[in-house]
Design goal:
Elements lengths: L40 E14 L9 E18 L2 E7 L28 H4 L20 E11 L2 E10 L2 E6 L4 E6 L3 E12 L3 E12 L2 E13 L4 E13 L2 H6 L7 E13 L3 E10 L15 E13 L8 E12 L5 E14 L3 E14 L2 E17 L2 E14 L4 E16 L3 E14 L2 E16 L4 E14 L11 E14 L5 E13 L2 E15 L2 E2 L1
Antiparallel strand pairs: 1-2, 1-26, 1-27, 2-3, 3-4, 4-5, 5-8, 6-7, 8-9, 9-10, 10-11, 11-12, 12-13, 13-14, 14-15, 15-16, 16-17, 17-18, 18-19, 19-20, 20-21, 21-22, 22-23, 23-24, 24-25, 25-26
Amino acid sequence: SYPRSVRHRMTSHRRDRNLACILCQMNKLTGFQGMKTGWGLELDPTLTANRTDTRPDFPDGALQKDRQALEPGLTLRWGVTPNLILNAAVNPDFSQIEADVAQLSVNTRFALRYPEKRPFFLEAADFFLTPIEAVFTRTVADPDGGLKFTGKIGKNAIGVFGAYDRVNNLLFPSNQGSQQASLEESVPSGVFRYRRDVGEGSALGVLYTGRQSGDYFNHGAGVDGFFRLSRTKTLNFQYLHSETEYSEEVADEYGQQRGRFGGDAFEASFTHQDQDWIYLFGYRDFSPGFRADYGYVPRVDLRRGSASVRRMFWGEAGDWYTRLMAATNVEVVYDHSGKLTDGNVEVMGQYQGPLQSSALLSYSRIREHYAGVDYDFNQGIAVTEIKPMGGLRISAVGVYGGAVDYANARAAQQLVLAPVLEFSLGRHVEVHLQQTYQRMAAAGKTIYTANLLQGRFIYNFTTRSFVRLILQYLDLSRDQDMYDFPVTEKTQTLFTQFLFSYKLNPQTVMFVGYSDNYLGLTDVDLKQLDRTFFVKLGYAWTR
């Protein structure tokens, strides 16, 4: 694939844009016979040491040694057959090694989502994918052990996952917002997934998820399906039912129902995709009592309908564009009392051209119900990207228009700018720079200004070793007169992480790292809150 000016692709099979299934068009390889395999066994012992110092008396106190730990761990991977894989871990080190990309949490109602990066969970993660995200492994925080069995035999696919976690991560959803809690309590949990291929390119499946600890439990189960109706049309659906009970203390603190309660969730979508047209229709119905504590479902008590129509125009050799797209999207959301809580009508256009360049413009008319008030406003979005030369990518996102100031429950104007610059210098240096600027105003006055800067710098010594530096800096300024409650006028945070990595293979590794956090307030300059030193050694024994 040569994507520089205009993408040229050379393949061993023809790609038909009027057939929505890409995998169906791949060549089938036959004739492999007499192959011998090993035991398919891999043992990965690890040893992780870390020390954290904190400043309990901020800002004047000194840094004090808070905790240190030396933890051995063991991970096993066994290819029972070429298609069945067993993974097990005892006191595993599920540290991500790389910090999450920071997101602005100012003026948000629903829990932020961070992608999974841990290899133990990423392997065979597609076995647990369903239309409703009922399995989100970031809910597993610090387990004593984990077990996963995945594979496929003929038309049957199976996935089993279990963990004994030392932290119970909970998400309390509603129509108007969500809350989160991390409880220091042991919680065993498990997931069972079965899927069977039906006909040509269709499948039916069942899913169960469960977590239980003391006087808390959450169980969910249901069915789902994917049907390929024709070369261009598909149908997806999933139904889940959950049963939940929180402890009285948790229920009272987070405004949840006492005692056992249940809820249902249903989602369906129909999609048509050919060379020139894409249109899709979706429906989602989550009852107020539905909970997916093993997944990521930050909003319930909704009935959502959506429709989208897109028209593509393809360029010819020598044209100024490679593809143009025009689209219209419509969405409405009602709660279970029949109240219209969200509405959105959007028109958009997109350009794709030489140098992997693209530009998208959209205009939306939005209705949003919050805290008993209906808000109607307009919003525009612009997205652009280009790769003018090898090793260089430039992109930017801009949002401007009306918004809701959730902290003070009033109409506001919002501006968001998010440029990104990525480049490499030769074979050794990689740089990723990103900024997110957000300003919200009402009645001609600025409510707050947030500026988030992130940098990721990598120097690759060889294909086996590198050093990486990550910097994340947030500067948040608020006008105290624009708030109905006390707020800090100025807040600054700085996070740094340094890592040296040496890998013989993906599991025989050595990591040496350091990270710290700084905090600055209105009358306090940036000052270190904590620091952590860590070392991880891992060895892979295979047979």
